[in-house]
Amino acid sequence: MQRDKPDNEKYSVTALLGDPSFVRWALQQDPTVTARWESWTAANPENAATATTAKQLLLQIRFVEHVPTEEMVTQSYQRFTGNIAQLRQSPVQRRRLYAVFTWRRAAIWTGLLAVAGTTAFYIWRQQTTLKVSTAFGEIRQVVLPDSSLVTLRANSTLQYRRSLNGQLRELWLHGEAWFRVNPDKKAAGFVVHTADADVTVLGTTFDLKQRKHHTAIFLQSGKVRVDFHDPQRTSRVLSPGDLVEYDAQARQVAASKADSSYTSWTQGKLTLTDAPLSDIIDILENNYGEKIVVNDEKIKERKIEGIIYLENKADILFIISNVLDIQISRKNDTMYFSNRK
């Protein structure tokens, strides 16, 4: 039996998330490890704070495992037993030697069907997809099975699957997310698929967004390769600070530089530098589900600078209304932006 570490051992949040006994204590209240972790958290306030953060991350995971219905299982079983019954109902042959070969062949087919059924079940289990989604106005942190950390922005969906041999980690993103990929020497790669591009990484932090035919990739650290689905666009390898944007309708790629403020939404705020109102309108529509009508297109060009906190949508509207001198009104499910009279 592995010896428990002493109470004065220092753990990071990442280390706790990867410790099986801590996970059992945090999620299952396993009595066999309760004394150890209660003693450790009580040792000093720093331990308690670290444990609280790790528990919150574990409790925020909301994966949905796709399990076949009972009807699907029943139908599969009926097909399996039906095939066996047909094999056993082979006509009696006149010559005994031919009959022996017939039954032997039936036995072989029965074995093959059994192996095929077992293999299919194994493949289904290995390819089970983990899925997590966020509602409008919600930001959620997700720890993937490989211990990589994802911060999922509002109105987004993420699916995760590992290949049969465990060599490839694949994800499908609709919306926006920030990734901190956990390096895995045994894995061939970590790939995130969107509607218009695939991003391949080995160990890095980056932001990926795909909304309304627009894809943006910002690399914070490490290195990624972007492969566009458009055959006329060549792959690009990004270095830290690179921001690449792709417009699927215009089929154009734009490259620029950005800093860490680009991902400030992960801390629940927007750090704006000479940002047009059109950018904030996109956030209100994509992340809060608002339908917005602007009566004068020039309003969208008005610029704003500073920090806006995302906790309260009413505060965002109050700030842009007063700073940009616009009138905001609502009728039914639509919000209207216009010049002040």
From TrEMBL:
<feature type="transmembrane region" description="Helical">
    <location>
        <begin position="106"/>
        <end position="124"/>
    </location>
</feature>
<feature type="domain" description="Protein FecR C-terminal">
    <location>
        <begin position="269"/>
        <end position="336"/>
    </location>
</feature>
<dbReference type="InterPro" id="IPR006860">
    <property type="entry name" value="FecR"/>
</dbReference>
<keyword id="KW-0812">Transmembrane</keyword>
<keyword id="KW-1133">Transmembrane helix</keyword>
<dbReference type="InterPro" id="IPR012373">
    <property type="entry name" value="Ferrdict_sens_TM"/>
</dbReference>
<dbReference type="Pfam" id="PF04773">
    <property type="entry name" value="FecR"/>
</dbReference>
<feature type="domain" description="FecR protein">
    <location>
        <begin position="132"/>
        <end position="225"/>
    </location>
</feature>
<protein>
    <submittedName>
        <fullName>Ferric-dicitrate binding protein FerR, regulates iron transport through sigma-19</fullName>
    </submittedName>
</protein>
<keyword id="KW-0472">Membrane</keyword>
<dbReference type="GO" id="GO:0016989">
    <property type="term" value="F:sigma factor antagonist activity"/>
</dbReference>
<dbReference type="Pfam" id="PF16344">
    <property type="entry name" value="FecR_C"/>
</dbReference>
<dbReference type="InterPro" id="IPR032508">
    <property type="entry name" value="FecR_C"/>
</dbReference>
